[in-house]
Amino acid sequence: MIQFATRTHPGRVREANEDAVGVDEARRIWLVADGMGGHACGEVASAIVVDTILGAAELSLKDAVKAAHRAIIDAVARDSRCEGMGSTVVAVIARDHAAEIVWVGDSRAYLWRAGALSRVTRDHSVGELLREHNRLSEEEIRVHPQRDLVTQTLGHHEPHPGSVALDLRAGDTILLCSDGLHGELRDDEIAAVLKDTIALDETADRLVDGALAKGGRDNVSVILLTVPGDGSQDFWRRLRTTARPWLPALLGVTAALVGAMLVLWIGAKH
Question: In the chain, which ranges are E strands?
């Protein structure tokens, strides 16, 4: 059973927390939504995203994200005071040693595996475009005045959710977070926290505390998911899976070798 911890904090600057986290442990779905919009409608948008995705049991994860986009548009049509509201999202569904991650905007997913951190998602943001096309370094992007502008959000235009599938292994940890975390902490600083073998709840606290210590200029939300085990059980599972197609041939070769050795041994006896 996957272990998890969630944390969300308004940060040190903003009065309201427009982030929202969602969990459906029975269906193994987790998500972080980062809302935006005036008159507290950012909170409304992120809540709509969570409620819609968790309530869309009949849909795929990507279709549930698209349904959340339509739900925000419908909410604006009912209440013009929320005109312009939207939300980013990163969501994961983890089942049977596999995970699917879907996202829109700059909320991220990371994978911590065997002592190394890798970013699973690619931001829908100006910062990501600067990284890809202008070859700017991470430090240059962090001081760029437009780095935080998102190019896709739920509730605006027609988003194209990104998605990726992961083969989960024992000991893996998935981190979902809003930009309030990765906007304050560099990837190597996040990795330094995950490196410590401490309880999952404490790790989540330390990530949020780290973002607050660096300024906490935005709402901060994290979800940590860990696959139990140290990797040894996963090794044998993968070995059985990969060995299955050629196991009969291997047994046949082994039997032939044993037979040949017996023939030689009997011949040597005589």
Answer: 3-9, 19-24, 29-36, 86-95, 98-104, 108-113, 116-119, 162-167, 173-177, 220-226
Cα distance from N-terminal residue to C-terminal residue, the chain: 61
Query: CB pairs under 8 A, 24+ apart, for 50-58?
Result: 50/20, 50/21, 50/22, 51/22, 53/22, 53/29, 53/89, 53/91, 54/22, 54/24, 54/29, 57/27
Tens of pLDDT, residue by residue over 50-101, are 999 999 999 999 999 999 999 999 999 999 999 999 999 999 999 889 999 9
pTM for the model = 0.83
- The neighbouring-strand residues paired with 177 are 108, 222
Q: How far apart are CA 70 and CA 112, in angstroms?
A: 33
